[in-house]
Design a protein that fits this description.
The chain contains seven helices and eight strands. It is an alpha/beta fold. The chain has a single domain, classed as Vaccinia Virus protein VP39 (Rossmann fold), CATH 3.40.50. Helix 3 crosses helix 4. It is globular, with a radius of gyration of 16 Å. It binds S-adenosylmethionine. The site of S-adenosylmethionine has 26 residues, from helix 2, helix 4 and strand 2.
């Protein structure tokens, strides 16, 4: 655990905007995210910006099969850590802006093979044009009906504006994280409220089929 904090700190010093967080995610944040994903058996889960793997560990603990989890991380040293920590998982060193090429050309999978995208990407801290490109790619990726779980440290509004083509399904705040984080669940438009209309602040919605 200390090793993860140390490596995270080194990455933060080297590339603060790409890391965009003070420390790895807490087990509670990981548990909440994992509860929104559940235990898909026939489909894949794509995790973007896995960092030291706190969320990854939560997903696996909750029952996502190791061989159904595809982890994408840009930092080479964090990729090495993730491969050591999760032998058997598919860890790709790459940029979230290239998810379509990575999934289709490298992995020979289709977007319809995925039920969930889990994003730890710090969209607010990376350069805006890059964040917009990534968000557009993620929204295209969900066209077959997969769901997106994204967290942010902006508790007022924020990440919802990146995904205006998606419906906002659920939001909750995890206070036991440093800093506290808001977890948002999105689905293809029509299955939730338009993301933009949510952009007024933190709201809690109880999802009829939520499993936590
Ligand atoms: C907030 S940190 C994730 C922290 C992680 N949940 C943990 O507990 O360690 C964001 C991660 O996204 C990665 N990242 C940033 N931009 C990226 C991009 N364009 N493609 C892939 N990964 C990216 C960073 O390298 C970093 O590991």
């Amino acid at each position: 655990m200390l090793k993860h904090f140390t490596q995270f700190g080194a990455e933060l010093l080297a590339n603060p905007r790409a890391i965009g967080a003070a420390c790895p995610s807490s087990p509670l944040l990981a548990r909440r995210i994992a509860s929104l994903v559940g235990r898909p058996q026939q489909s894949y889960v794509l995790e973007l910006g896995a960092g030291t793997g706190s969320i990854t560990a939560g997903l696996l603990r909750r029952g996502v099969p190791m061989d159904r989890l595809i982890i994408l991380e840009r930092s080479a040293s964090l990729v090495r850590l993730l491969r050591r920590r999760f032998p058997g998982a598919i860890v790709i060193e790459g940029d979230a802006a290239d998810i379509h090429n990575i999934v289709q050309d490298q992995l020979k999978l289709s977007t319809s093979d995925f039920s969930h995208v889990v994003s730890s990407l710090p969209l607010k801290s990376i350069p805006r044009p890059v964040a917009e490109k990534i968000a557009a790619g993620i929204q295209d990726f969900l066209c077959h009906g997969a769901r997106l779980v994204q967290y942010t440290y902006d508790l007022r509004n924020g990440s919802t504006s990146w995904y205006e083509r998606l419906g906002h399904v659920h939001s909750s705040v995890i206070w036991l994280n440093f800093p506290p984080a808001r977890v948002d669940l999105y689905s293809a438009a029509g299955q939730g409220r338009p993301a933009r209309s949510h952009n007024q602040g933190v709201r809690r919605q109880v999802m009829a089929n939520s499993n936590f």
